[in-house]
């Protein structure tokens, strides 16, 4: 634990889909230079809560968010917050790789273009190359930047999506089961990548894979039925959980 | 017996076959088997199928060949020797005799025809009886054959399945065969046309005035380029200038912005627009839009504007086409995975940036295909141009001037009074063939584009 101000904080956050409450009074802090893992059985609200952090729930018609979430101390649900700016600062990588049906170059250049990050073509190329390098994809695609992004393998597509998210220079990266659609080798690459990215961004990752959570994260949050049951250092959660439910889940005694 | 009564009879026999076979199958010894291969009703269907199908096939075939047989018999009659040698007139007299033969109490106008009435009637009755007897015989034979085959172990279920498939196949072949038939008849008449008019005169000639045809070189006044141009100008340019933006924008609004309640009533209304009879659009174009367009032209300082301007017909046609464009665009935008949209939004793109940079490019092939289909509908559209476009064949870029279309000219050519064999009438078929081929090509291209697009998201 550190005393530095938290990158993001959530206080008493609840999310409703219509009448149904999917997330119940969750309070949590997200810190810079750390990977935070969300674990928990299917349907417990991990994705829902993750999406509140960059207001992607706004795109779901009947979703409603209560409570307070801040980014650098600023309430992201306040009327003064520009969603466009927020999402540029809090990037997201989805479970299923979703590159745009454009070239590899254009996929990565998409964010910088819409946010006007590059002053010249050379500038843009520089950003694209740097993002692809950080995403560990550069060596594989540098000779075919004009090929379609959808023509890559699943693992490459996912790293392309990470490069795309990195290209707008976010501060926080949210990943919703980024490796669940990938084979073990591609998964290992993504995990390695998360390790390398750790120093630059605050990373939040949802995963169903206990080993993965243990390998990549420093902090782990265990969700159950919409509640945040336990949140602490990953080592503690996995070796000495305080809650019975956490222990049951981690040892596989729970669905 | 007439064909209708015969069908009833055969259907009745089929029902009897079904009932007897079912009751017999119900009494089959199961032989200890727990599960029957086929239910009694399926045995019934098997027999009924064998009663009905061969008989019906025979009736259809007989219906096709018996007129030729009747004609043959009548021609062998002594009175037939007085018939003129010339094919066309001879057929006319025979047709008259045949018509009179079916209406007792009416006399034929031509004495030769009158002489042939009695033999025609006799021949008809005879072949009719043969047909009826053959059908009934076949029904019984088929039924008997099927009846001997059913037993507890007989897989009637699979046979019925096969019969079903055959019936469906025939049903779908009928549409295809009709298309082929239409194409062949168009082709046939067009070949006759091109026997009289050179194909280059027709396809590349720029002068169209079928009213005054020089018999020495009919092609000189049958150059179809002005019609092709008018069709293209009205259907593919003016109409699309209306239909593409409005269709696209309404699709974008409906898929991306409209609240579900709005979408629920707005989409059906758009679809109703597609169901308005084109003749109603025709009134609208001729009575409301055309005068308004002319007044507009005059206001713009163009006093000689036609009251049958290309613009009026094109505008209304464009409105008619909007629902086609919008529903195809709607489908293809909706088919773009939500993950794509979310990916863009999560990058901090606004809704309109997402639409213009991700959704539309991703949906583009489907949208293009929709536009091609819409163009092919527009250039084949007849009623609006018949009522609102002019007959004057101009090659013009001025939308206030009059232009004519292929479909409008076809109607004019065929409704005028002139012999069937003249180049003027035959030109209608050549025009029809051209239109058919162009529309077909547009459709093929559109379907290919759509198919490739579907594959991209598998
Ligand atoms: N768009 C939606 N509309 C209504 N209910 C939803 C919607 N999305 C999720 N839910 C409900 O909210 C609850 C939490 O869903 P969520 O997707 O956050 O779970 P999760 O923990 O991510 O599960 P998984 O591990 O399977 O991804 C579930 O009960 C789900 O049925
Ligand atoms: Mg989830």
From TrEMBL, chain B:
Keywords from the named record: Cell inner membrane, Cell membrane, Membrane, Phosphate transport, Transmembrane, Transmembrane helix, Transport
Predominant localisation class: membrane
Annotated ABC transmembrane type-1 domain residues: 229-446
Full protein name: Phosphate transport system permease protein
Membrane topology category: Multi-pass membrane protein
TM region positions: 6-23, 44-65, 129-147, 168-188, 227-248, 269-290, 310-337, 358-379, 426-450
Cellular location(s): Cell inner membrane; Cell membrane
GO-annotated cellular components: plasma membrane
Purpose of the protein: Part of the binding-protein-dependent transport system for phosphate; probably responsible for the translocation of the substrate across the membrane.
